[in-house]
Inverse folding.
């Protein structure tokens, strides 16, 4: 496959609209994560899948599988097609860096979410839909950085969510 073929959009690709919807935050030890579901409006993330995602992250926190996350961040639970889901855990570190852990659940054969293996030097990050939430979070974090960064600012950051088309 040529480099051009790897970067081109397939002729039969039809881009659809998806929505980022905020859900209640998730506390994992000292870390508080805002939560976004990303999915088509007519096929939202099922409640049972969100529950499995939350349970998977809580279990991973208890077993230290997630490592040290940091104090604040966000999760994107992205419905990709019928029954494949990405679970992207992003936390802010070193003032201005966004760190990410990628998990996935592929259909009913995966009872829980698990780490997504990524090989190679050049690898994927966020897709176009996920970037809608990431863009908002970048702005929200910048507002936090220029604030007093006290408890009131922390709460303001956690309330500052996006809800809309991505």
């Amino acid at each position: 496959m040529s480099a051009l073929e790897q970067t081109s959009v397939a002729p039969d690709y039809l881009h659809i609209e998806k929505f980022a919807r905020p859900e209640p935050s998730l506390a994992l030890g000292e870390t508080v994560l805002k939560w976004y579901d990303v999915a088509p409006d007519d096929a939202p993330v099922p409640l049972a899948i969100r529950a499995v995602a939350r349970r998977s992250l809580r279990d991973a926190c208890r077993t230290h599988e997630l490592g040290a996350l940091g104090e604040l961040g966000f999760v994107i639970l992205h419905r990709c097609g019928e029954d494949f889901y990405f679970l992207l855990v992003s936390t802010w570190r070193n003032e201005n860096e966004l760190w990410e852990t990628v998990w996935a659940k592929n259909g009913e054969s995966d009872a829980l979410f698990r780490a997504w293996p990524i090989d190679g030097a050049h690898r994927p990050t966020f897709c176009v839909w996920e970037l809608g939430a990431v863009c908002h979070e970048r702005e929200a974090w910048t507002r936090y950085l220029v604030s007093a960064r006290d408890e009131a600012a922390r709460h303001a950051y956690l309330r500052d969510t996006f809800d809309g088309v991505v």
Observations:
- Helices lie at 3-7, 47-62, 130-145, 151-159.
- The chain has four helices and seven strands.
